[in-house]
Amino acid sequence: MNWRFQECGPGDESDFLWVRSWVYDGRPPQESDHLADIIGGGRRYLARVDDQPVGVTNCLTLRARHAHGFVPLAGVATVGIAPTHRNGGYGQRLMAEVIRAERAQGMVAGALYAFRDKFYRKQGYASGAAHRMELHVPVDRMPSLAQTLDARVATAADIDGLAACHAAFVAPYALSVDRHPDRWARMLASQDSQLFVLGAPAEAYVYARVKGFYEVLEVNEFAWSSRAGYESGLAFIRSLAINQSSVKWCEPEDCPFMSRFHDGQVDVSVDREAMVRVYDVPGALACLKPALSGAFRLRVADPIVPENEGPWRVEFGPDGTTCVPDSGNDLPLVEVDITTFSGAFFGHPGWRQMHRMGLVTADAATLDTLESLMPTGLTYHSELY
Ligand SMILES: CC(C)(COP(=O)(O)OP(=O)(O)OC[C@H]1O[C@@H](n2cnc3c(N)ncnc32)[C@H](O)[C@@H]1OP(=O)(O)O)[C@@H](O)C(=O)NCCC(=O)NCCS
Q1: Range of the domain at 101
Q2: Could you tell me which of 191, 253, 276, 371 has the fewest CB atoms within 10 Å of its CB?
Q3: How far is the CA of 274 from the centre of ligand 1 (A)?
Q4: What mean pLDDT is predicted for residues 91-120?
Protein backbone atom coordinates (compact mmCIF):
# COMPACT_ATOMS: atom_id res chain seq x y z
CA MET A 1 0.00 0.00 0.00
CA ASN A 2 1.48 3.30 -1.12
CA TRP A 3 -0.07 6.28 0.77
CA ARG A 4 0.51 9.77 -0.60
CA PHE A 5 -0.81 12.95 1.04
CA GLN A 6 -0.41 16.38 -0.53
CA GLU A 7 -1.83 19.85 -0.80
CA CYS A 8 -4.14 19.90 -3.79
CA GLY A 9 -2.72 21.74 -6.82
CA PRO A 10 -4.46 22.72 -10.09
CA GLY A 11 -3.66 19.31 -11.64
CA ASP A 12 -5.34 17.46 -8.76
CA GLU A 13 -8.79 19.02 -8.99
CA SER A 14 -10.45 16.17 -10.87
CA ASP A 15 -9.17 13.65 -8.32
CA PHE A 16 -10.40 15.86 -5.47
CA LEU A 17 -13.82 16.15 -7.15
CA TRP A 18 -13.94 12.41 -7.69
CA VAL A 19 -13.67 11.70 -3.96
CA ARG A 20 -15.89 14.59 -2.90
CA SER A 21 -18.68 13.60 -5.30
CA TRP A 22 -18.64 9.97 -4.21
CA VAL A 23 -18.60 10.93 -0.51
CA TYR A 24 -21.13 13.78 -0.52
CA ASP A 25 -23.34 13.03 -3.55
CA GLY A 26 -23.00 9.24 -3.79
CA ARG A 27 -22.08 9.33 -7.49
CA PRO A 28 -19.18 10.18 -9.81
CA PRO A 29 -18.63 13.89 -10.58
CA GLN A 30 -20.93 15.48 -13.20
CA GLU A 31 -19.86 17.94 -15.91
CA SER A 32 -21.31 20.82 -13.90
CA ASP A 33 -19.40 19.96 -10.67
CA HIS A 34 -16.52 22.26 -9.91
CA LEU A 35 -14.40 23.47 -7.00
CA ALA A 36 -15.51 26.93 -5.84
CA ASP A 37 -12.94 29.24 -4.25
CA ILE A 38 -12.68 28.79 -0.49
CA ILE A 39 -14.17 31.97 0.98
CA GLY A 40 -11.48 33.91 2.79
CA GLY A 41 -8.76 31.58 1.48
CA GLY A 42 -7.52 28.19 2.57
CA ARG A 43 -6.08 24.94 1.30
CA ARG A 44 -7.38 21.65 -0.05
CA TYR A 45 -5.71 18.34 0.66
CA LEU A 46 -5.84 15.06 -1.19
CA ALA A 47 -4.67 11.57 -0.20
CA ARG A 48 -4.00 8.78 -2.68
CA VAL A 49 -3.48 5.08 -2.10
CA ASP A 50 -1.61 3.29 -4.87
CA ASP A 51 -2.23 6.34 -7.08
CA GLN A 52 -6.00 6.16 -6.55
CA PRO A 53 -7.62 9.26 -4.97
CA VAL A 54 -9.18 8.19 -1.65
CA GLY A 55 -9.30 11.10 0.83
CA VAL A 56 -10.07 14.83 0.77
CA THR A 57 -10.53 17.81 3.03
CA ASN A 58 -10.80 21.62 2.78
CA CYS A 59 -9.17 23.85 5.37
CA LEU A 60 -10.42 27.43 5.63
CA THR A 61 -7.91 29.98 6.89
CA LEU A 62 -9.65 31.72 9.80
CA ARG A 63 -8.70 33.99 12.70
CA ALA A 64 -10.36 33.01 15.96
CA ARG A 65 -10.90 35.23 18.94
CA HIS A 66 -9.41 34.30 22.31
CA ALA A 67 -10.00 36.16 25.59
CA HIS A 68 -6.45 37.56 25.21
CA GLY A 69 -5.80 37.79 21.49
CA PHE A 70 -6.45 36.31 18.07
CA VAL A 71 -5.32 32.90 16.88
CA PRO A 72 -4.78 31.65 13.28
CA LEU A 73 -7.23 28.75 13.03
CA ALA A 74 -7.92 26.15 10.33
CA GLY A 75 -11.63 25.49 9.75
CA VAL A 76 -11.57 21.83 8.70
CA ALA A 77 -14.43 20.92 6.36
CA THR A 78 -15.44 18.37 3.71
CA VAL A 79 -13.58 15.48 5.34
CA GLY A 80 -14.17 12.38 3.27
CA ILE A 81 -12.80 8.94 2.44
CA ALA A 82 -14.10 7.26 -0.73
CA PRO A 83 -16.73 4.60 0.09
CA THR A 84 -14.47 1.91 -1.41
CA HIS A 85 -11.70 2.64 1.12
CA ARG A 86 -13.41 3.14 4.48
CA ASN A 87 -12.69 1.44 7.81
CA GLY A 88 -9.05 0.87 6.96
CA GLY A 89 -7.61 3.68 9.06
CA TYR A 90 -7.23 6.13 6.14
CA GLY A 91 -9.58 8.69 7.74
CA GLN A 92 -7.47 8.82 10.90
CA ARG A 93 -4.31 9.03 8.83
CA LEU A 94 -5.70 11.85 6.70
CA MET A 95 -6.68 13.88 9.76
CA ALA A 96 -3.25 13.42 11.37
CA GLU A 97 -1.56 14.63 8.16
CA VAL A 98 -3.87 17.65 8.01
CA ILE A 99 -2.92 18.68 11.55
CA ARG A 100 0.79 18.57 10.68
CA ALA A 101 0.33 20.27 7.29
CA GLU A 102 -1.78 23.14 8.64
CA ARG A 103 0.63 23.56 11.58
CA ALA A 104 3.47 23.95 9.07
CA GLN A 105 1.39 26.70 7.39
CA GLY A 106 1.14 28.67 10.65
CA MET A 107 -2.32 27.53 11.74
CA VAL A 108 -1.83 27.10 15.49
CA ALA A 109 -5.25 25.49 16.00
CA GLY A 110 -8.10 23.90 14.07
CA ALA A 111 -11.86 23.59 14.51
CA LEU A 112 -14.49 21.40 12.91
CA TYR A 113 -18.08 20.24 13.13
CA ALA A 114 -17.96 16.51 13.70
CA PHE A 115 -20.24 13.81 12.26
CA ARG A 116 -19.18 11.91 15.38
CA ASP A 117 -16.97 13.22 18.16
CA LYS A 118 -15.25 9.92 18.86
CA PHE A 119 -13.53 9.87 15.47
CA TYR A 120 -11.96 13.31 16.04
CA ARG A 121 -11.25 12.88 19.77
CA LYS A 122 -8.74 10.23 18.75
CA GLN A 123 -6.93 13.07 16.94
CA GLY A 124 -6.87 15.34 20.00
CA TYR A 125 -9.93 17.47 19.18
CA ALA A 126 -11.88 18.53 22.29
CA SER A 127 -15.64 18.01 22.40
CA GLY A 128 -17.91 20.72 23.67
CA ALA A 129 -15.52 23.57 22.87
CA ALA A 130 -18.39 25.72 21.59
CA HIS A 131 -22.12 25.15 21.36
CA ARG A 132 -24.68 26.77 19.09
CA MET A 133 -28.05 26.39 20.80
CA GLU A 134 -31.19 25.96 18.72
CA LEU A 135 -34.45 27.36 20.07
CA HIS A 136 -37.69 25.93 18.73
CA VAL A 137 -40.56 28.11 19.87
CA PRO A 138 -44.30 27.84 19.06
CA VAL A 139 -45.41 31.13 17.50
CA ASP A 140 -47.88 31.72 20.35
CA ARG A 141 -44.98 31.51 22.85
CA MET A 142 -43.01 34.26 21.15
CA PRO A 143 -42.89 37.34 23.39
CA SER A 144 -45.03 40.27 22.40
CA LEU A 145 -42.46 43.04 22.02
CA ALA A 146 -42.50 46.44 20.36
CA GLN A 147 -40.43 46.61 17.19
CA THR A 148 -38.75 49.95 17.80
CA LEU A 149 -36.29 49.59 14.89
CA ASP A 150 -37.48 49.66 11.29
CA ALA A 151 -36.77 46.57 9.17
CA ARG A 152 -35.68 46.63 5.53
CA VAL A 153 -34.48 44.11 2.95
CA ALA A 154 -30.66 44.20 2.94
CA THR A 155 -28.74 45.33 -0.13
CA ALA A 156 -25.03 45.52 -0.95
CA ALA A 157 -25.01 49.01 0.62
CA ASP A 158 -25.70 47.38 4.01
CA ILE A 159 -22.62 45.16 4.07
CA ASP A 160 -20.50 47.48 6.25
CA GLY A 161 -23.34 47.92 8.72
CA LEU A 162 -24.05 44.17 8.81
CA ALA A 163 -20.36 43.46 9.36
CA ALA A 164 -20.20 45.94 12.26
CA CYS A 165 -23.32 44.45 13.85
CA HIS A 166 -21.95 40.92 13.43
CA ALA A 167 -18.55 41.91 14.88
CA ALA A 168 -20.23 43.36 17.98
CA PHE A 169 -22.43 40.26 18.28
CA VAL A 170 -19.52 37.78 18.29
CA ALA A 171 -16.99 39.90 20.21
CA PRO A 172 -17.78 38.45 23.70
CA TYR A 173 -17.06 34.88 22.61
CA ALA A 174 -13.78 33.00 22.33
CA LEU A 175 -13.54 30.97 19.09
CA SER A 176 -15.67 33.48 17.20
CA VAL A 177 -14.52 34.58 13.75
CA ASP A 178 -15.01 37.90 11.96
CA ARG A 179 -16.94 37.33 8.75
CA HIS A 180 -15.28 37.62 5.36
CA PRO A 181 -17.01 40.17 3.02
CA ASP A 182 -17.60 37.47 0.38
CA ARG A 183 -19.84 35.61 2.83
CA TRP A 184 -22.14 38.64 3.03
CA ALA A 185 -22.25 38.79 -0.76
CA ARG A 186 -23.18 35.10 -0.87
CA MET A 187 -25.96 35.60 1.70
CA LEU A 188 -27.36 38.55 -0.28
CA ALA A 189 -27.33 36.49 -3.49
CA SER A 190 -29.19 33.54 -1.92
CA GLN A 191 -32.32 32.45 -3.80
CA ASP A 192 -33.41 30.49 -0.78
CA SER A 193 -33.25 32.86 2.19
CA GLN A 194 -33.68 36.59 2.69
CA LEU A 195 -31.55 38.97 4.71
CA PHE A 196 -33.37 41.72 6.65
CA VAL A 197 -31.67 44.56 8.55
CA LEU A 198 -33.09 46.34 11.58
CA GLY A 199 -31.99 49.86 12.47
CA ALA A 200 -29.80 52.41 10.74
CA PRO A 201 -27.00 51.78 11.48
CA ALA A 202 -27.80 48.07 11.79
CA GLU A 203 -28.46 46.89 15.34
CA ALA A 204 -29.73 43.46 14.29
CA TYR A 205 -30.26 41.30 11.23
CA VAL A 206 -32.42 38.28 10.46
CA TYR A 207 -31.53 35.83 7.69
CA ALA A 208 -34.53 33.61 7.18
CA ARG A 209 -36.17 31.19 4.81
CA VAL A 210 -39.73 32.43 4.47
CA LYS A 211 -42.13 30.01 2.80
CA GLY A 212 -45.42 28.14 3.13
CA PHE A 213 -48.15 28.15 5.74
CA TYR A 214 -48.24 26.50 9.17
CA GLU A 215 -44.72 25.18 8.87
CA VAL A 216 -41.55 25.87 10.83
CA LEU A 217 -40.00 29.25 10.06
CA GLU A 218 -36.27 28.55 9.73
CA VAL A 219 -34.15 31.51 10.75
CA ASN A 220 -30.64 30.68 9.56
CA GLU A 221 -29.08 33.51 11.49
CA PHE A 222 -30.21 36.16 13.95
CA ALA A 223 -27.61 38.55 15.35
CA TRP A 224 -27.84 41.75 17.34
CA SER A 225 -25.59 44.40 18.81
CA SER A 226 -27.97 46.05 21.34
CA ARG A 227 -31.03 45.42 23.47
CA ALA A 228 -33.19 47.33 20.98
CA GLY A 229 -31.73 45.16 18.21
CA TYR A 230 -32.50 41.91 20.05
CA GLU A 231 -36.03 42.88 21.02
CA SER A 232 -36.89 44.38 17.62
CA GLY A 233 -35.39 41.28 15.98
CA LEU A 234 -37.63 38.97 18.03
CA ALA A 235 -40.66 41.14 17.23
CA PHE A 236 -39.77 41.03 13.54
CA ILE A 237 -39.28 37.24 13.61
CA ARG A 238 -42.70 36.90 15.25
CA SER A 239 -44.30 38.94 12.46
CA LEU A 240 -42.46 36.89 9.80
CA ALA A 241 -43.94 33.80 11.46
CA ILE A 242 -47.49 35.13 11.63
CA ASN A 243 -48.82 32.33 9.40
CA GLN A 244 -46.46 29.63 10.68
CA SER A 245 -46.66 27.14 13.55
CA SER A 246 -43.29 27.62 15.14
CA VAL A 247 -39.93 29.31 14.72
CA LYS A 248 -36.37 27.99 14.94
CA TRP A 249 -33.26 30.08 15.38
CA CYS A 250 -29.91 29.73 17.10
CA GLU A 251 -28.25 31.68 19.88
CA PRO A 252 -24.86 31.38 21.57
CA GLU A 253 -24.80 29.20 24.67
CA ASP A 254 -25.69 32.02 27.09
CA CYS A 255 -29.08 32.26 25.25
CA PRO A 256 -30.68 35.60 26.15
CA PHE A 257 -34.04 34.16 25.11
CA MET A 258 -33.89 31.61 27.94
CA SER A 259 -33.12 34.18 30.63
CA ARG A 260 -35.64 36.79 29.49
CA PHE A 261 -38.46 35.21 27.51
CA HIS A 262 -38.65 31.50 28.22
CA ASP A 263 -42.33 30.61 28.70
CA GLY A 264 -42.73 26.85 28.55
CA GLN A 265 -42.98 24.59 25.49
CA VAL A 266 -39.66 25.85 24.18
CA ASP A 267 -37.28 23.17 22.96
CA VAL A 268 -33.62 24.00 23.42
CA SER A 269 -31.05 21.70 21.90
CA VAL A 270 -27.48 21.77 20.68
CA ASP A 271 -27.69 22.54 16.96
CA ARG A 272 -23.96 22.34 16.25
CA GLU A 273 -21.01 21.63 18.43
CA ALA A 274 -17.61 22.81 17.31
CA MET A 275 -14.62 20.67 18.29
CA VAL A 276 -11.24 22.32 18.59
CA ARG A 277 -7.60 21.24 18.66
CA VAL A 278 -4.42 23.17 19.29
CA TYR A 279 -1.97 22.19 16.53
CA ASP A 280 0.99 24.21 17.81
CA VAL A 281 1.22 24.63 21.60
CA PRO A 282 4.04 27.23 21.76
CA GLY A 283 2.63 29.02 18.69
CA ALA A 284 -0.85 29.26 20.20
CA LEU A 285 0.43 30.52 23.56
CA ALA A 286 2.58 33.14 21.80
CA CYS A 287 -0.65 34.73 20.41
CA LEU A 288 -1.83 35.74 23.90
CA LYS A 289 -1.41 39.11 25.64
CA PRO A 290 -3.18 38.92 28.99
CA ALA A 291 -3.54 41.80 31.45
CA LEU A 292 -2.04 39.81 34.34
CA SER A 293 1.43 38.25 34.61
CA GLY A 294 2.53 34.76 35.60
CA ALA A 295 4.72 31.77 34.79
CA PHE A 296 4.52 27.98 34.88
CA ARG A 297 6.01 24.90 33.25
CA LEU A 298 3.90 22.87 30.89
CA ARG A 299 4.03 19.33 29.55
CA VAL A 300 1.42 18.31 26.95
CA ALA A 301 0.99 14.69 25.88
CA ASP A 302 0.45 14.73 22.10
CA PRO A 303 1.13 11.48 20.21
CA ILE A 304 0.33 13.07 16.82
CA VAL A 305 2.55 16.15 17.20
CA PRO A 306 5.37 15.19 19.62
CA GLU A 307 6.90 18.66 19.02
CA ASN A 308 4.10 20.02 21.22
CA GLU A 309 5.09 18.05 24.29
CA GLY A 310 7.73 20.24 25.96
CA PRO A 311 8.32 20.65 28.84
CA TRP A 312 7.85 24.36 28.16
CA ARG A 313 8.58 27.38 30.27
CA VAL A 314 5.60 29.68 29.80
CA GLU A 315 5.91 33.32 30.92
CA PHE A 316 3.16 35.83 30.24
CA GLY A 317 2.15 39.41 30.91
CA PRO A 318 0.81 42.54 29.19
CA ASP A 319 3.73 42.47 26.73
CA GLY A 320 2.83 38.98 25.50
CA THR A 321 3.59 35.33 26.16
CA THR A 322 6.77 33.36 25.61
CA CYS A 323 6.96 29.58 25.53
CA VAL A 324 10.44 28.06 25.34
CA PRO A 325 11.83 24.59 26.03
CA ASP A 326 12.71 24.19 29.72
CA SER A 327 14.06 21.27 31.68
CA GLY A 328 14.50 23.21 34.97
CA ASN A 329 12.23 22.77 37.96
CA ASP A 330 11.98 26.24 39.48
CA LEU A 331 8.36 26.73 38.36
CA PRO A 332 5.25 24.64 39.11
CA LEU A 333 4.56 22.00 36.47
CA VAL A 334 1.23 21.56 34.66
CA GLU A 335 0.66 18.20 32.95
CA VAL A 336 -2.20 17.70 30.54
CA ASP A 337 -3.10 15.83 27.34
CA ILE A 338 -3.61 17.71 24.08
CA THR A 339 -7.40 17.19 24.02
CA THR A 340 -7.89 18.73 27.46
CA PHE A 341 -5.40 21.51 26.70
CA SER A 342 -7.21 22.37 23.46
CA GLY A 343 -10.60 22.96 25.09
CA ALA A 344 -9.18 24.80 28.10
CA PHE A 345 -6.94 26.97 25.91
CA PHE A 346 -10.07 28.57 24.41
CA GLY A 347 -11.94 28.56 27.75
CA HIS A 348 -14.43 25.72 27.51
CA PRO A 349 -14.44 23.30 29.27
CA GLY A 350 -12.16 25.30 31.57
CA TRP A 351 -9.11 24.41 33.65
CA ARG A 352 -10.89 24.01 36.98
CA GLN A 353 -13.51 21.62 35.67
CA MET A 354 -10.86 19.56 33.89
CA HIS A 355 -8.76 19.55 37.08
CA ARG A 356 -11.78 18.28 39.06
CA MET A 357 -12.11 15.50 36.50
CA GLY A 358 -8.49 14.52 37.13
CA LEU A 359 -7.38 15.51 33.63
CA VAL A 360 -4.99 18.31 34.63
CA THR A 361 -2.14 17.94 37.09
CA ALA A 362 -1.53 21.32 38.76
CA ASP A 363 -1.62 22.80 42.27
CA ALA A 364 -4.34 25.28 43.32
CA ALA A 365 -2.18 28.38 42.87
CA THR A 366 -1.15 27.25 39.39
CA LEU A 367 -4.80 26.81 38.40
CA ASP A 368 -5.22 30.53 39.16
CA THR A 369 -2.19 31.22 36.95
CA LEU A 370 -3.69 29.15 34.11
CA GLU A 371 -6.97 31.05 34.45
CA SER A 372 -5.13 34.38 34.17
CA LEU A 373 -3.75 33.34 30.79
CA MET A 374 -6.55 31.12 29.44
CA PRO A 375 -9.71 32.09 31.34
CA THR A 376 -12.80 29.90 31.47
CA GLY A 377 -15.49 31.75 29.56
CA LEU A 378 -18.13 31.79 26.87
CA THR A 379 -17.33 30.38 23.47
CA TYR A 380 -19.13 30.56 20.14
CA HIS A 381 -17.79 29.40 16.79
CA SER A 382 -19.64 31.84 14.61
CA GLU A 383 -19.08 30.46 11.08
CA LEU A 384 -20.57 27.30 9.63
CA TYR A 385 -18.60 25.36 7.03
C1 LIG B 1 -15.74 9.64 8.39
C2 LIG B 1 -14.75 9.04 7.44
C3 LIG B 1 -13.87 10.16 6.85
C4 LIG B 1 -13.87 8.05 8.22
O5 LIG B 1 -12.91 7.50 7.35
P6 LIG B 1 -12.40 5.99 7.52
O7 LIG B 1 -11.20 5.81 6.68
O8 LIG B 1 -13.53 5.05 7.31
O9 LIG B 1 -12.00 6.01 9.06
P10 LIG B 1 -11.01 5.06 9.82
O11 LIG B 1 -10.90 3.76 9.15
O12 LIG B 1 -9.76 5.80 10.09
O13 LIG B 1 -11.80 4.89 11.17
C14 LIG B 1 -13.17 4.47 11.15
C15 LIG B 1 -13.36 3.29 12.02
O16 LIG B 1 -12.64 2.23 11.51
C17 LIG B 1 -11.79 1.70 12.51
N18 LIG B 1 -10.56 1.25 11.88
C19 LIG B 1 -9.44 1.91 11.72
N20 LIG B 1 -8.50 1.14 11.16
C21 LIG B 1 -9.06 -0.05 10.94
C22 LIG B 1 -8.61 -1.28 10.35
N23 LIG B 1 -7.35 -1.42 9.89
N24 LIG B 1 -9.49 -2.28 10.24
C25 LIG B 1 -10.75 -2.15 10.70
N26 LIG B 1 -11.21 -1.02 11.28
C27 LIG B 1 -10.38 0.02 11.39
C28 LIG B 1 -11.55 2.85 13.40
O29 LIG B 1 -11.13 2.43 14.71
C30 LIG B 1 -12.89 3.48 13.41
O31 LIG B 1 -13.73 2.75 14.27
P32 LIG B 1 -14.56 3.41 15.40
O33 LIG B 1 -15.84 3.87 14.74
O34 LIG B 1 -14.80 2.34 16.37
O35 LIG B 1 -13.78 4.54 15.94
C36 LIG B 1 -15.44 8.27 6.30
O37 LIG B 1 -16.23 7.26 6.87
C38 LIG B 1 -16.35 9.13 5.44
O39 LIG B 1 -15.89 9.68 4.46
N40 LIG B 1 -17.65 9.24 5.80
C41 LIG B 1 -18.65 9.99 5.01
C42 LIG B 1 -18.43 11.49 5.10
C43 LIG B 1 -18.35 12.00 6.49
O44 LIG B 1 -19.15 11.65 7.36
N45 LIG B 1 -17.35 12.86 6.76
C46 LIG B 1 -17.13 13.46 8.05
C47 LIG B 1 -17.67 14.84 8.06
S48 LIG B 1 -17.36 15.58 9.64
Answers
A1: 3-107
A2: 191
A3: 19
A4: 97
| Neighbouring C-alpha atoms within 13 Å toward the C-beta of 285 | 25
* Tens-digit pLDDT profile for residues 150-198: 999 999 999 999 999 999 999 999 999 999 999 999 999 999 999 999 9
Distance 86 CA to ligand 1 centre (A): 6
Question: In CATH, what number is assigned to the domain containing residue 223?
Answer: 3.40.630.30
Instruction: Please state, in angstroms and rounded to a whole number, the distance separating the CA atoms of residues 170 and 232.
Output: 19
Same domain for 344 and 231 = no
pLDDT tens digits, 273-304: 999 999 999 999 999 999 999 999 999 999 99
Pick the atom of ligand 1 nearest to 81's CA. 39
Residue 153 carries which side chain, given as an amino acid letter?
V
Residues 306 and 259 in one domain: no
In a domain, 126, yes or no: no
Residues 169, 163: Cα–Cα separation, whole Å: 10
Per-residue confidence (pLDDT) for residue 323, from 0 to 100 = 98
Sign of CA dihedral 342, 345, 350, 356: positive
Among candidate residues 160, 178, 223, 183, the one with its CA nearest the CA of residue 71 = 178
CA-based end-to-end distance of the chain: 32
- Is the same domain home to 269 and 165? yes
Compute, in angstroms, the gap from residue 51 CA to the centroid of ligand 1: 20
Q: CA of 354: how far to CAs of 60, 108, 327, 332, 342, in Å?
A: 29, 22, 25, 18, 11
Q: Ligand 1 centroid to 91 CA: how many Å?
A: 5
Q: Which of 90, 107, 124 is the last residue of a domain?
A: 107
Closest atom, ligand 1, to C-alpha of 87? 11
- Cα angle: 49, vertex 53, 59; to 5 degrees: 110
